[in-house]
Structure formats: structure tokens, C-alpha cells
């Protein structure tokens, strides 16, 4: 059918180039496409190594169009489910709209030739995306026009789905970011060539992703903002080592149920439990407008409130995390791609340092090195506020139990986050660790405020005092 669809596209008389994305079709389609590309200078073929998902194919084609500098892109299926006859209408509406969507619901009887099962599933999908995501358009179809000269290419960085749910997730994100969306009424015939490739597992994955987006919109809406990612300096990146795999952790982009659930719970926990507690301790230890550094900033969801009152710099070993932080905190003073073992700041240049869920991932010797670096960059009497999970903290015990179930019982081989090595045992333990690196313990809290998940350790920079261990104690 590629020869027939190409003939109809060429007959439209458009000043356009045509891209086919082929996922190593086993029926000879790839070879035929290469022949067509040789015969037509405006035809390009992109071969991929295997079936990587329909959403992935669309992302590949859209990214390619951006890279080639095109201003408009129409995406469509090649099985004649999407008739080329509507393309002129797409282009016309694209004069004022940013995205044009082919809609199966504006024209009465547009699905009349489909079987009852397919019609029911399609209408159910349309109702669900409208009800749960607030997207009033036909969000599950791939017949679209994108005004690439108006739509930020970084919307692709925000979309996580690689399968069928790419369609409703991408339109959901574009809708949330206030792009203008128009619709063309289309009449979809019964499939002319081939058969539907959607499996039952695809439907379940789409439902799971729909629920994930619905909850994510309520819990962590910043995740869906389209923002230019953090661009790392290659020279800086070469000198950084990430042995714990934090960039892989923040880059995680799969559909494993355990990861989806964990990410939602973590977002809820950061926003509604940890953020209020952090607000309390930062406001209680620093004057407004103080210059603070979030050392190991991660996604930065917890800094949303304090970012309005303090001048915050965010440091992380992961460039992906810094990009996420930028989404959550548009007012960030500076994003720093660096290591907490070697902070690229002048000595005595900042008022305070805070982090959450960082220190436990290191040995006590490494913690001493980290605190030594904190001591160097802090001004005299500067303070650190560390949210440090204790040995008997709620999240420590829950995660141990969850990992046991996932890996020992269900044999899933899932690691939800890098290993935790050093937990705080007591107030005395925290004071001893701080004292070795030139900090005096000013406050220690473990209680209901954050549901017994962290020991909150506040230290103040003092001069190193060389004494024997007994005197120091």
C-alpha cells in the first residue's frame, strides 16, 4: 500500500517532502520504499532496527522534521485509515492553529463502517481522555498537522509514552501548555490494508498511562510544562563521575508499573509532606533573600515555595535532574552541573546549603568529604539543613519491604532508586558526623511533621578545633 498512498500524496500537488518511517517491516516494505525514494527526490525513508512502538515512530519522524528545519508536518498512517484528501484542510486550518487534529467525532457516521468492538473502544477512549485529562479533541488518533515553527520542539522531551498512548499524552501536554488546537472532521473507513496492530496489552498500558497522567496533573503539574532542557557543558561533563547512576535514575522513561506507581507516590510525598517541613526549617534558619544552594537538587519539587523568598542555586550530578528542576523552579538563580565532592563555587560565597535524601547514599568517609566541601563554600556561621533518613524511618522500612516483595517474591529485579548506605542512628550520631567536619549541631528533629521519614539535621559552620576524640565528645 505504500506505492498507492504515495501516488495519492503526490497527486495533491503540494510543495512538500514525504518521510516514511519503517520499523524493519518483514514483508518487503522497506525495500520497496527504498526504490520509491530513488525514483522520487522528495521522498525519504528512515529505517529503524525493529518494532519500537507507534509512538516512538511518530517521535522519530517529528524529531527528524525539526532537525531538517521544516515549518509544518503532517503525520498519518499508511493503511488508508487516514485519507490524504483532508490534507489541504489541515494546512488551511494550520494558518491560525498550532496543531490540527483529524477528528472522528465531528462528522456523523464517520465510524459507521467499523465493527462494533472497534467503535466501542474508540468512543470509550475519547470519553476517557476528555473526562480524565480535560482534552476535548480526538486525542487518540495520529492524523495531525504540527506547526513546527510555533510548537516548541521540547514537547518531545516531556512525552514519556512510546506506544499508542503517545497520541493522547502528547495532545494532553500541548493542550496544557496553551497551544491552539483545531480539528478537521474526517470520515474513517474500515481498514483497507492490513489489520489493527493494537494488542490487548496495548489497551491496558494506555489505561495505565491515562491514570498516571490524571494523577500526575493533580500531584505534579509542573512535570508537563514544556521547557528548554538544561544543556550541559561537555568539558564540565567529562570531568564528572556518576557511579551511582543518578542520571539514569532521573532519565528513567519506561512503563513499568512499579516505577509509575513509585514516581506518583514520590511526587505526592515531596509536595504535600516534605515541602511544608522544608519550608519550616529553611524559614527558621535563614533570613529572606539569603543565597542558598540545594546540593543534590533532583527534580526540585520541594523548592517551589522557598524559591520565592530566597536566592537558590541548584547543583546536581545529573543534567536531566537539572532540567527537571528548571521546570519546577523558573526563578532559580543558577543551575550548576557538578559534584557535591567538588563544588564549583568560591570559598565562603553562600549563606546556606540544604538537601533531602542525599547523604544516606554515601559512606561516612564520603560524607565527611562532602561536609568538608560544604564547610569551604559556606560563609562564617553559614548553616546546613539536611533531611537524612534514619535507620528506623518510615520510608526506609517501607522501601525495604517493597524491594523485598518485588525482587525476592515476584522476581522482578527492580531497583526503585540508588542504594542507601548510611542512615542516621541518633542525635548523638549526627552530632559526631558534623563535628568531624567543622559543624556544630544546632537542631535535630524526627517526628510526625514529615511522618517520621527523615531526621532533620541542622548544623552551623564553626572553625575546625583539633582535639582528641574524648574532648570533642
TrEMBL record:
The keyword Glycosyltransferase belongs to this UniProt entry's keyword annotation: yes
Occurrences of domain Methyltransferase type (ranges): 294-386
Pfam families recorded: Glycos_transf_2, Methyltransf_11
Family matches, as InterPro entries: DPM1-like (IPR039528), Glyco_trans_2-like (IPR001173), Methyltransf_11 (IPR013216), Nucleotide-diphossugar_trans (IPR029044), SAM-dependent_MTases_sf (IPR029063)
Keyword vocabulary terms for this entry: Glycosyltransferase, Transferase
Positions of the Glycosyltransferase 2-like domain: 8-127
GO-annotated molecular function: dolichyl-phosphate beta-D-mannosyltransferase activity; S-adenosylmethionine-dependent methyltransferase activity
Any one biological process term the GO annotation gives: glycolipid biosynthetic process
The keyword Transferase belongs to this UniProt entry's keyword annotation: yes
Record-level GO cellular component terms: membrane
Similarity-based family: Belongs to the glycosyltransferase 2 family.
Stored PANTHER family: DOLICHOL-PHOSPHATE MANNOSYLTRANSFERASE SUBUNIT 1
Protein name in the entry: Glycosyltransferase
Species of origin: Sulfuriferula multivorans
Amino acid at each position: 500500500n505504500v506505492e498507492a498512498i504515495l501516488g495519492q500524496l503526490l497527486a495533491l500537488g503540494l510543495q512538500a517532502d514525504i518521510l516514511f518511517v519503517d520499523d524493519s517491516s518483514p514483508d518487503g516494505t522497506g525495500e520497496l520504499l527504498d526504490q520509491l525514494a530513488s525514483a522520487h527526490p522528495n521522498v525519504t525513508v528512515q529505517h529503524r532496527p525493529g518494532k519500537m512502538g507507534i509512538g516512538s515512530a511518530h517521535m522519530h519522524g517529528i524529531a527528524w522534521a525539526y532537525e531538517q528545519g521544516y515549518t509544518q508536518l503532517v503525520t498519518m498512517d499508511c493503511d488508508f485509515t487516514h485519507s490524504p484528501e483532508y490534507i489541504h484542510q489541515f494546512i488551511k486550518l494550520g494558518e491560525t492553529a498550532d496543531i490540527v487534529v483529524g477528528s472522528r467525532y465531528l462528522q456523523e457516521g464517520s465510524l459507521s463502517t467499523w465493527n462494533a468492538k472497534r467503535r466501542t473502544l474508540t468512543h470509550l477512549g475519547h470519553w476517557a481522555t476528555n473526562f480524565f485529562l480535560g482534552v476535548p479533541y480526538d486525542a487518540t488518533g495520529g492524523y495531525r498537522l504540527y506547526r513546527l515553527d510555533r510548537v516548541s520542539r521540547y514537547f518531545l522531551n516531556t512525552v514519556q509514552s512510546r506506544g499508542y498512548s503517545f497520541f493522547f499524552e502528547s495532545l494532553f501536554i500541548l493542550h496544557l501548555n496553551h497551544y491552539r488546537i483545531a480539528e478537521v472532521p474526517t470520515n474513517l473507513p474500515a481498514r483497507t490494508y492490513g489489520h489493527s496492530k493494537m494488542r490487548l496489552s496495548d489497551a491496558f498500558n494506555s489505561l495505565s498511562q491515562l491514570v498516571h497522567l490524571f494523577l500526575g496533573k493533580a500531584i505534579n503539574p509542573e512535570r508537563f510544562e514544556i521547557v528548554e532542557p538544561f544543556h550541559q557543558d561537555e568539558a564540565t561533563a567529562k570531568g564528572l563521575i556518576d557511579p551511582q547512576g543518578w542520571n539514569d535514575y532521573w532519565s528513567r522513561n519506561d512503563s513499568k508499573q512499579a516505577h509509575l506507581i513509585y514516581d506518583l507516590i514520590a511526587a505526592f510525598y515531596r509536595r504535600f509532606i516534605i515541602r511544608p517541613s522544608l519550608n519550616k526549617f529553611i524559614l527558621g534558619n535563614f533570613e529572606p533573600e539569603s543565597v542558598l544552594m540545594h546540593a543534590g537538587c533532583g527534580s526540585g519539587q520541594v523548592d517551589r515555595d522557598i524559591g520565592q523568598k530566597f536566592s537558590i542555586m541548584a547543583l546536581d550530578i545529573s543534567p536531566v535532574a537539572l532540567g527537571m528542576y528548571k521546570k519546577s523552579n523558573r526563578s532559580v538563580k543558577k543551575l550548576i552541573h557538578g559534584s557535591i565532592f567538588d563544588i564549583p563555587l568560591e570559598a565562603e560565597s553562600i549563606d546556606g546549603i540544604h538537601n533531602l535524601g542525599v547523604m544516606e547514599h554515601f559512606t561516612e568517609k564520603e560524607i565527611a568529604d562532602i561536609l568538608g566541601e560544604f564547610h569551604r563554600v559556606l560563609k562564617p556561621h553559614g548553616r546546613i539543613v539536611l533531611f537524612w533518613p534514619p535507620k528506623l524511618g518510615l520510608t526506609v522500612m517501607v522501601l525495604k519491604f517493597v524491594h523485598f516483595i518485588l525482587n525476592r517474591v515476584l522476581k522482578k529485579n527492580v531497583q526503585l532508586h540508588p542504594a542507601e548506605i548510611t542512615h542516621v542512628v541518633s542525635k548523638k550520631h549526627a552530632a559526631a558526623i558534623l563535628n568531624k567536619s567543622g559543624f556544630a549541631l544546632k537542631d535535630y528533629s524526627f517526628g510526625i511533621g514529615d511522618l517520621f521519614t527523615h531526621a532533620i539535621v541542622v548544623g552551623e559552620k564553626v572553625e575546625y578545633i583539633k582535639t582528641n576524640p574524648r574532648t570533642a565528645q
